[in-house]
Amino acid sequence: MAKARDTAFFCSECGYESAKWQGQCPACKAWNTLVEAPKAGKKERKVSGGGVRMKVAPVPLSAIEMKEEARFSSGFSELDNVLGGGIVPASLLLVGGDPGIGKSTILLQVCRHVSAAGRKVLYISGEESLRQIKLRAMRMGDFTEDLSFLSATNLDDIAETLRERLPAVAVIDSIQTMYREDVDSAPGSVGQIRECTSLLLQLAKGLGVTIFIVGHVTKEGTVAGPRMLEHMVDTVLYFEGDRSASYRIIRGVKNRFGSTNEIGVFEMAEEGLREVKNPSEYMLEGRPLGASGSVVACAMEGSRPVMLEIQALVCRTNFNNPRRTAAGADYNRVNLLMAVLEKRMGRHLSECDAYVNIAGGMRISEPSLDLAIVLAIDSSYRDIPAGDKTLVFGEVGLAGEVRGVSQAERRVNEAKKLGFNRVILPKSNADALRKTEGIELIGVRNVREAVAALG
Is the torsion defined by CA of 380, 384, 389, 395 positive or negative? Predict the structure, then answer.
């Protein structure tokens, strides 16, 4: 008889288990995602709690009692806004981001604020020693006795510590360094991450502890490990930003307790991360005045309008194939808009190299930036500066028409707050808006009218 295999192949996207390797996962249809890992034995599959089976019965919707979640503040209003109003007790949160982006720093600051409010906090690090944590914490200020630190990687021992101390908040830094003794695979493997996250989920819901999990990301920008890791947690937060720049953006990708459209903006300082209360003013800082190819646009991040500088540089090419580069904007969208500008306005862009950049390193895919990209490219092509106090937003179609966008009034109010005196926007939005004192609204129906309005 053939000997039974002790390993199986698991899909890193959906967790599907297969006895042999396959190029495509039969469940989620993803390619090259099956990785070999030890099978989950009986000891692994044992549910914590002594194996006691609870009898449950279905109930109608009318019999379910509703109560408002008693959220508490993280100490950062920007982070509370992303979380939907604060931290929900007994929730499991995953924080991902590039190495060195500031994940451990912001969580240590959150622990400091929460412990200062009188709640017990436990910070568990599997990557740093206690001495290293103290060196980093000394820059942030004083810490209370309610904040404790632990350097460990055995999750079974960590679970016992959580049951004994019962903190309000716990931080696991990071999930890739944690392991369970009854799983015969290396830390960071699919099996270890799956079983460790499952245990942390049971501890969060069973003990009422809010647990933050730090996750490393792959070169594609997604959290390393099985995709089911993001399905198991309540909230997924991504920390973005260029490490060479001083700003950081935290974005909610999944949130069972609030919206996923909000962002929080932070600035990296010597003492840690500092909130940026007005992102628009921060993003426009250092903007060149009177330069061609520079247009200010307004994008919506959830309910918050954010002003951005769209930069374009168009110059004659020395090659047969002109070069196209887009930083922060969608590359294919930029090519589409250039084709519209060439067809509808007669600009000979096929003879030019074109470079489009969203200043500050922001990545925006909202269609409302279309008109600003078109006008920035045209401004650079003609070498005519756009107005320094002019804001542009609107979606552009293939026929050259300018379509309306949502929340136009919020965008106009943000422009007035920052001292802009002219807004070029879709005609449909301009007709629906009330006249705003001190600011001129120019409604345009197509790209030709927008270029004429810009000057």
Answer: negative
- Which amino acid would we find at residue 148? S
Q: Which of 410, 95, 83 is nearest to 259 (CA)?
A: 83
* Coil, strand or helix at 297: strand
Position of tokens 């920008």? 221
DSSP annotation of 197:
H
d(CA 221, CA 224): 9
- Residue written as token pair 């996750």: 215
* Closest C-alpha to 403, from 428, 366, 423: 428
Calculate the average pLDDT of the chain.
86
Q: Are residues 142 and 184 in the same domain?
A: yes
Sign, Cα dihedral of 354, 358, 362, 363: negative
> Looking at residue 319, what is its pLDDT?
82
pTM of the shown model = 0.75
Most confident of 224-228, 297-301, 397-401: 397-401
Under 8 Å between Cβ of 368 and 405: yes
Q: How far apart are CA 252 and CA 33, in angstroms?
A: 25
Provide the number of structural domains found in the chain.
Answer: 3
Check whether 87 has a pLDDT greater than 50. yes
400 is in which domain, residue-wise? 287-454
Q: Indicate if 203 and 99 belong to the same structural domain.
A: yes
293 shares a domain with 242: no
Which segments within 117-159 are labelled E, that is strand?
121-125, 147-151
Residue 404 placed within a domain: yes
